[in-house]
């Protein structure tokens, strides 16, 4: 068999990608949705002499915090990431939209990052471990700061195709994810409109925006981030689990049950993080309500035997797809890629212009990274995203592959 006829071996699947293009998106998200709420909280306090806080602002803050916080723990975390129960499509959409309003990232990105965290808990590859920055007081302080906040400025982006293939097949979630920034904006607009209508003034609208939007986002973010940081360093550890996860039961209500973190790492397939009825777990309570209403099913907690032995089921794994085609034909590459994008975007393949920039045809960074990594796996050729992400088009990707194949031959 000649060298040209020999089957091309698939390239090893990348688990994460580092790219200046993605780092620019990460910095923008960090500034808009992680840093801005800090300034928004300061602004809310400074605005008090102009418009004192009232029952409306408190209701908007608490209601928004509860709605988005429960959506993160029940939707993003327990349902979409760990598949601890099944939910009706309408419930999936509501949880994904409300979770997006929290400003902690689109659902596909959040899931992929969190699955990578469980895979590499407190080891190299964990995107937000506090235990990898050295020993001593300075190392621990540096690790806490990194895991609580700074890691979001710039980090490796997990391969969605590897870590979230199930979500890439969920058309409803793909559509919700495409409009992530609009959901965040809606989460800001709703309290602003309510505040303006209640007080019949522009100061009421501003106050609603600040307390029901930015302060709400600030409070929830730092509660969730404390799970990543402090509860991987401080707290109780009743179960053996990968990494250094700890329980912080005193924060159970504030975190909607997320602070039973060691329990969760030991039994990631459990919809209950508290594991026992007497441990406060509002997220699990909501799941039980959904099940009672017929909107959720397969809500199963670990057996008494598993709890006594502390043995958790291994996280779900998925073998890489078969590498069926290896032909380096420009037309075939574009045809296959148009079909992939058409399915992801819910549009006819012929509507996708191969010469158009991804942004123009509605391809966000999540789908773009998934496409490029799937192409790498399919054709066995490494694609350096630094070269293609400035102005990515299907023509550019296909041209690079054909040129690369010619160089290899």
Topology diagram in text:
Blueprint (H helix, E strand, L loop, with lengths): L15 E2 L2 H27 L8 H27 L4 E2 L1 H13 L5 H13 L16 H13 L8 E2 L1 H4 L1 H4 L2 H8 L1 H20 L2 H28 L31 H6 L15 H11 L3 E2 L6 H6 L20 H16 L19 H15 L5 H4 L5 H15 L1
Antiparallel strand pairs: 1-3, 2-4
Give the termini distance in whole angstroms.
Answer: 15 Å
Total beta strand runs: 4
Number of helices: 17
* Overall spatial form: globular
Helix content: 55-70%
The SSE order reads EHHEHHHEHHHHHHHEHHHHH
Q: Report the mean per-residue pLDDT as an integer.
A: 85
User: What is the SS-derived class?
Assistant: mainly alpha
Largest sheet: 2 strands, antiparallel
Total separate domains: 2
Question: Proportion of β residues?
Answer: under 5%
Radius of gyration: 23 Å
- Give start-end ranges of low-pLDDT stretches: 311-326
Strand arrangement, major sheet: 1-3
Explain this structure:
This protein has 409 residues and is mainly alpha-helical. The chain has two domains: 18-239, no CATH class; 330-408, ACP-like (Non-ribosomal Peptide Synthetase Peptidyl Carrier Protein, Chain A, Orthogonal Bundle), CATH 1.10.1200. 56% of the residues lie in helices and 2% in strands. It is built from 17 helices and four strands. It has helices at residues 20-46, 55-81, 89-101, 107-119, 136-148, 160-163, 165-168, 171-178, 180-199, 202-229, 261-266, 282-292, 304-309, 330-345, 365-379, 385-388, 394-408; strands spanning 16-17, 86-87, 157-158, 296-297. A two-stranded antiparallel sheet has the order 1-3. Strands 2-4 form a two-stranded antiparallel ribbon. Helix 2 runs antiparallel to helix 9 (180-199) and helix 2 runs parallel beside helix 10 (202-229). The longest helix is centred in the middle third of the chain and has 28 residues, at 202-229. Residues 311-326 have low confidence and may be disordered.
């Amino acid at each position: 068999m000649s060298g040209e006829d020999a089957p091309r071996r698939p390239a090893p699947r990348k688990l994460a990608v580092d790219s200046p293009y993605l780092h620019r998106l990460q910095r923008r998200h960090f500034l808009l949705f992680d840093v801005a709420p800090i300034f928004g909280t300061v602004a809310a306090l400074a605005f008090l002499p102009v418009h004192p806080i009232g029952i409306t602002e408190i209701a908007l803050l608490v209601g928004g915090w509860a709605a988005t916080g429960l959506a993160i723990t029940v939707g993003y975390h327990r349902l979409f990431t760990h598949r601890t129960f099944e939910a009706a499509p309408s419930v999936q959409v509501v949880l994904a939209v409300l979770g997006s309003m929290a400003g902690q990232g689109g659902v596909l990105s959040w899931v992929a990052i969190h699955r990578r965290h469980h895979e590499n808990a407190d080891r190299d590859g964990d995107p937000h471990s506090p235990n990898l920055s050295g020993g001593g007081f300075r190392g621990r302080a540096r690790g806490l700061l990194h895991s609580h906040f700074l890691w979001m400025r710039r980090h490796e982006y997990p391969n969605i195709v590897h870590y979230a293939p199930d979500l890439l097949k969920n058309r409803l979630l793909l559509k919700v994810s495409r409009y992530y920034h609009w959901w965040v904006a809606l989460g800001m607009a709703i309290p602003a409109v309510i505040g303006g209508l209640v007080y019949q003034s522009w100061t009421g609208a501003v106050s609603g925006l600040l307390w029901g939007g930015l302060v709400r986002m600030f409070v929830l973010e730092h509660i969730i981030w404390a799970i990543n940081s402090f509860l991987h360093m401080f707290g109780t550890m009743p179960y053996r689990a990968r990494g250094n996860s700890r329980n912080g039961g005193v924060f159970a209500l504030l975190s909607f049950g997320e602070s039973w973190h060691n329990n969760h790492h030991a039994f990631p397939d459990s919809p209950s993080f508290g594991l026992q009825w007497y441990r406060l777990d509002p997220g699990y309570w909501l799941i039980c309500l959904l099940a009672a209403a017929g909107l959720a099913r397969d809500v199963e907690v670990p057996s008494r035997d598993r709890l006594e032995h502390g043995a958790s089921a291994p996280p779900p794994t998925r073998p890489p797809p078969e590498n069926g085609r290896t032909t380096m034909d420009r037309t075939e590459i574009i045809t296959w890629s148009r079909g992939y994008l058409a399915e992801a975007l819910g549009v006819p393949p012929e509507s996708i212009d191969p010469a158009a920039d991804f942004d123009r045809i509605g391809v966000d960074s999540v789908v773009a990274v998934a496409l490029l990594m799937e192409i790498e796996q399919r054709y066995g050729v490494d694609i350096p995203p630094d070269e293609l992400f400035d102005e990515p088009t299907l023509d550019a990707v296909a041209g690079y592959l054909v040129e690369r194949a010619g160089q290899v031959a």
